[in-house]
Structures
1.
Amino acid sequence: MKNICRCLVTVIFMAMPLSSFAAEDGLPERVVLNKIAAVVNGEIITLHELRQQAGAEFIRSGINPSDPASRGQVDMIMSKVLSVMVDDMLLRQEAERLQIKVSDSDVENELRKLVQRNQMSMKEFETRLAAQGGTIDMLKGHLRNNILSQRIISIQIARKSVVTEEEVKAYYEEHQTDFAAERSVDFSLIVFSPTANSDEVYENIRNGSLSFEEAAKKYSEGPSPDNGGNLGMIKWDDLAAPFKAQIVQLKNGEISPIFQTNSRNCLIKLNGSTSGRSMTLEEATPEIERILREPRLQERFTEYTEQLRSRAVIDIRL
């Protein structure tokens, strides 16, 4: 009984179906939009906010949310998007508890980098974002959450993910040819939306019924989807550890398994690479440590968010 009392989770599922986000019972649209979708530790997620976030997913999926025939798909997307929003709110609340802050300039810097990686002007980027059902303010919210996640990882999780000298040496000996100074790689990237069935897309790519480039155009939220997700030639030193961990296992033309970064499923296709001077073990050690640590961080971050949920009071009202 004491163990039951210690559990603070209270998830209440009301009878109303998710597809009830449309105007109903003759209520004005303004009243419907003010309804509460969820309460997380006393903080509210409104139906209006949920509809805004889900709108981009409906556009990407080619779904008309007002069509009764799409009710099942609408319910699934709304449920998944709400789950992501709950996790984001829990992380923000945890960041406040830990006194972790993200400034507006931090977010602006990340946005500027994202626009540059897409090789667009800000106006072109906003136009493409609008075509996908998104807004700059929504994107800034996602970027802020990503930065918060990384800072929570570095404070609460990274110190528990130790990589030993023996592991580094063994990895170097097995992948020595992959470590070169001044190396560059040409690769394409798919960053799946939270509601995309990444396993199904991956299987379709593997069996040849869908090309990587077609999948990127249809499903990717990452850079250059209209160009098949191709990022061009990038210096190895400029790559994030999750990408390096996948690329070192690939030959030209190969596709990585699905992996996660910033809680999003991703795929990489290696198009080509240039070799450079072989790195010594000492030179390669920091990079190897990052490669080995990254999957452990992602695993522990997932456990951490599950713990936040288990301690939270979450009232789902859809």
2.
Amino acid sequence: MEKIASILTEIADTLCGYPLFAVLIGGGLFLFAYSGMVSLRRLPEALRALRGSRGSSSTGISSAQALVSVVAATVGMGNIAGVAIAIAMGGPGAIFWMWVSAIVGMSTKYHEGVLAIKFRRHSPTGEPSGGPMHIIEQGLGRKWRPMAVCFAVAGMFGTLCIMNANQLTEAIASTAAQAGVASRSLALHLSIGIAIAATVALVVLGGIKRIASVATVMVPFMVGAYFIMVTYIILTNLNEVPAAVHAIFSEAFSLRAGWGALAGIAIIGARRAALVNDAGVGTASIMHGTSANTSPVREGLVAMLGPAIDSGLVCTLTAFAILLGGDLYPEGTQGLGIALEAFNRSIPMGGYLLTAIVTCFAMSSMFTYSFYGSSCAAYLFGNRGRKAYTYFFILSLIIFAVVPMTAAVALCDLFYALMAFPTMATLIMLRRTVREETRLYFNNKPSKSTAYADTSGAPCA
């Protein structure tokens, strides 16, 4: 197993280093500039679009529910374990590059949201379905279908919640061992994996509407509770906050170890951010494609708020919690263990509280990722494939609960890269379509009182 993990890690490190950095950040910067800095200029319109997008219909979920479901997926283990790994590997400066990725990612998500509605398909019963595979086939033409198939295959495996199942099991097992409830063992990990799989099955077998309904309740609760915990850490360590902020900015551009080290820090931050906000990976467009909204631009405006919440807000909360109360450079990269130690040091019973929040984070991710993977399976094999994949997804949670973390992280990174390459290529090739949709929308935008009313089934704005 160790040899396999080593090989996977080497492959992932090669593919997810400079190539992934260039695709996600380089491509994202290009879209950011080409769109006229849409993520900054159109932020007020995005907030208004979100406020007016809460309705749904019998054939889809609302734009707000789509955004919450996407956030339910992205606000997961990566926001805690991923940030901890980034800080341990690249130092505080890696956080700055995660912020850059958030701004760039908002522009990328805007393009994904627009194209998700523009090129989605409908079933005979009128149910919408979207995602890069449909965008590629409908937007670029049938000759590009092999690339759509490649995305769908990578999507089935890349959305298996490898890291979430692994790290959640580790967190629960560690907490149980510290409390003296049980000793850490393979049997304990297996038991936890079975419990996680059973819980996920109760939600995902109910389909997209049940997933969206649960996410609508879970996401505000878990983000709010996490915000309160980190606020307590900041208030009790106010004198150390300036030093933490200085470390983030100074080490983001530090040349003490040369240009190679600077590039390494930027890549680490971007690589972890790719696992956090999913911008450019393509999964978000699968969820946004199911929205009852009929306006591509309005969906794009709502979609671009995702990275602001996960990479912008939640990752920043985690970073400050670790910088103010954690051991930045422990022996080995234990991911979640670094964050647990930081919360234990800063808050009474902090480790237990964080474990509860982490459980909500991880479970919400699993709910949405099951839909992503099953949508990819449905594209390849039809509805029977969707059902079979859902059961496979549930079973995989038990398997990955006992997989070594190095192999889990490597697999997760690898499949994400294989999704990102075709997605970003498609977004860049269809950038003119997004620009034209944007121009038409804002040139013909109705008054503010009606511009963002999400009346399902209404004609495009």
3.
Amino acid sequence: MMLIEETTVPTGALPVAVFKEHLRLGTGFADDGLQDTLLESFLRSALAAIEARTGKALIERTFSWSVTRWRGGCEQALPIGPVSAVVGVTLVDRAGDQELVDAESYVLRPDMQRPVIAAVSGSLPAIPNAGSATIEMLAGFGPDWSDLPADLAQAVMLLATHYYEYRHEVQYDGGCMPFGVSALIERYRTVRLLGGGTA
């Protein structure tokens, strides 16, 4: 199985100005925007790290997920959340030919921890032998920074600040996440059961 981020977080959705205030950087100078690209990179890195730890997409964007078999015949848990829409399901045979599945034959059951795509009746469409199914979905809390829960937004700020303050460190310290960040994201982490339930 393979999860691919089809669209990236737009620069306009990143709170660079808020991050500057959080860092208490000086303002009113001619070179105020000089560090914007650097600050954006730390915000993106913090977002990616927290998304990896929680299994959640923070800022809304499109993902595609390919599987070679369904874990359950009538439903399939999705590997990321929250999912607001399934854009489409495509079956791909061994020759690469594609068939779009009728959107009326399945339904999304939203869930913060484990969203599920389920057959309306019977089973999900059979995946061709030596083929795959690709699910395209819209995942994330919303398109804007303000859509994030306050604790996750704070966790991103704290982690991005950690990256900024230790940007010149070259010694490896084990890659541990700061305690404050870990505490803030703990309730969003997905509890893995039966090998994750998404394979």
4.
Amino acid sequence: MTSSAALQPDTSPITACTVARDVQNFDLLIEDMETELGEGWGDLNFADATAYLSQPEASALEFIAIAVDNEDNEDEALLSTIGDLITRTKDMGIRVILIADELSPIALHQLLKLGADDFVPYPLPEGALHDAIERIRAAAANPALVEEAANAGGPGGKLRSGKPGDKEGVIMPVHGLAGGVGSSTFAVNLAWELATVDKKRTPKVCLLDLDFQFGSASTYLDLPRRDAVYEMLSDMENTDDEAFKQTLLTFNDKISVLTAPADILPLDLVSAEDIERLVTLAQRNFDFVIIDMPTTLVQWTEVVLGMSQVYFGMLELDLRSAQNTLRLIRALKAEDLPHEKIRYTLNRAPKFTDMASKSRAKRMAESLDIDLSLHLPDGGKQVPQSCDHGLPISETSSKNPLRREISKLAQSLIDIELVEETA
């Protein structure tokens, strides 16, 4: 690896460089850069990168790899600097690869919108950087590929080109870490926003209500509870794609919903194998699968956690949420389960001007050693009114602050999925 000093004019030509607050935090990136480019690359911090782009030799760069992590995510000024760096680099005709380690979906969406050519998650999967470099080189050689990729999800298009039954949808469970924290409201409205927020791309979205006792997705969408749900759950071994889809209900021709059964049933009615088959059926037929989980931990919670790409843990700024979060983390660590998949979501988060409550939230996150990656504002009385009317918030109060935040999240998830699918 060449150091920052190696970027001086009297050295051998540099064709690429990494830009990070501290590149040593991305040791796998260092190894892959050395494998791909040998000594023909350098590393810079964000301040030095801005200065280097003003030098004549910067025009010889083929690409820069900007590496950001969750610490950068908490620094709004730094994110603004990174955004300016991406914009300036693109104006110079230099390609940008974004390396993200636990960056929030909203921040990632903002950086991708500024023009990053490719996105690679960190830790880097085997060969991911090589593939990203090959893609940007192919795009540079044939600019028409860029336009084709941008139009891949045109009107009526799907994120996944596979036929029904041959998809690989994104699984995103929502788990309330205490009663009444708004997990069902979030799950229902996230599913709706994913299906409607982007007019050019229409992903197929499925909402599974796995709270078999008190699931409220059917109430929030004014859908009937069907006996067919119990019949399917009782015979999962013989349930195929067609039987699964016939059990679903459709809300406004946009999202497919598996409601909770009509009667209160024990949560151990189904086995872990049954739930795995159910989620697999949904994943094979939809682009996004949102799962409303019961608050109670059951034998199949581990299965859903293992199959998920992102597992939303909903909590509020109160002692019960803090205690339950701590107990959940201990339980997952004791069983060596992937607790790092959980994205802790603070509902009814304090307003920007409420400095005392914001300080409390920060102290709670520090004491639990977690990152509150999503802050959802209090939607006020409009939220329960919308639920009582059986409609998503966007259909009754489109300018509601909670609805706007969920809409931003949905758009970022679609953009991330499109980038990965194009890759």
